[in-house]
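pinging the channel bc i need a second pair of eyes. not urgent but kinda urgent?? the chain im working w is below, pasted from the shared doc
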Amino acid sequence: MSKTLIQILYVQKVAGRSKKTGNDYDMRMAQCIVHKTDKDGQVIPLVGELVLPEKFKDIAPGSYEADFEVAIDQQKRVGSVVSELTPVRAAVNRADQKVAA
């Protein structure tokens, strides 16, 4: 598993009924900044949206170290999903300093 530093800024609830299946759904989408380290060791901030697994639907905004694992989605595509989110504080300050430098 690889660890990635992310800042969750806002968690949006997306709920409704699927037009295709008729099943109810209730998902959480995290608006976040991913602190990606490139091959030269530079931290690159990437802004995006992360689908949170059910076990993280009540997570609060903040800084986390995320573990990802390989998964297959409903369309049979290979991708990744969050397997663990560990709260972090000091690492974000170091990442912000590298970006500012």
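so The longest helix spans residues 90-100. and Strands lie at 2-17, 24-37, 43-52, 62-72, 78-87. — does that match what u expected or am i reading it wrong
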